[in-house]
Design brief:
It comes from Acidianus hospitalis (strain W1). InterPro entries: Gly_transporter (IPR005115). Keywords: Cell membrane, Membrane, Transmembrane, Transmembrane helix. The chain has 201 residues and is mainly α. It has one domain. Helix 2 runs antiparallel to helix 4 and helix 8 runs antiparallel to helix 9. The protein is globular. The model has no long low-confidence stretch (mean pLDDT 91).
Length: 201
């Protein structure tokens, strides 16, 4: 894994952990609930992706620095949650960066194991948004990525671009960085332009 991807993975883990923890606090969960939602939001997508790819045990359960970062971020959020309500904009950017990092890492891993288009796109997207879906389910809500905002769509586009360029032989290190930045930019653009997919209503 490239240094850029490693760093942004940690940014994503921390941002997603804070996101999950804030959701748990909003639902009046105790410390265990906060840690559980923080862990689920940040790492469950990668765990599910590994299981789909036949990687057992999943990396996020045996590479201790990842869950450690999630646990620490969740506990800090629990202890200072009032402070985090005033830093929403930086968290949005960190979340978007994490979305890009997880999309790139998931798509890269899937392509390295089997260069199949649907597999690469699905694994890239699940890695990026699967944790958020589980967070909302645990919080007894319809998953946010299925109801509003241009979020999972940015990951789908990023994963599709990864597959297309990888098939053309673009070097892996450059490609993962490119997809990370493209997904990140798409998400920020969607926030600024208030992009949403149409719904029946």
């Amino acid at each position: 894994m490239s240094l850029i991807l490693l760093i942004t993975n940690y940014i994503g883990i921390i941002a997603f952990s804070i996101s999950g923890s804030m959701k748990a606090i909003e639902k009046k969960m105790d410390l265990l609930g906060v840690i559980t939602l923080g862990f689920s939001t940040s790492l469950a997508g990668g765990i599910l992706a590994d299981l789909l790819l036949g990687i057992t045990p999943p990396t996020n359960l045996i590479y201790i620095p990842y869950p450690t970062a999630s646990f620490i971020a969740s506990i800090v959020t629990f202890a200072f949650y009032k402070k985090f309500t005033h830093v929403s904009k930086p968290l949005i950017y960190a979340d978007a960066l994490g979305l890009g990092a997880f999309t790139a890492s998931g798509a890269s891993l899937a392509f390295s194991l089997r260069p199949d288009p649907l597999l690469v796109i699905m694994v890239g997207t699940i890695t990026a948004v699967g944790g958020g879906v589980l967070r909302d389910i645990l919080a007894n809500e319809i998953p946010l990525v299925l109801t509003k905002e241009f979020y999972a769509s940015a990951s789908i586009i990023g994963s599709t671009i990864y597959y297309g360029l990888a098939e053309l032989g673009v070097q892996t290190g450059f490609l993962t960085t490119l997809v990370l930045l493209l997904t990140f930019a798409l998400r920020l653009l969607a926030i600024r332009m208030k992009w949403k997919l149409p719904n029946a209503s």
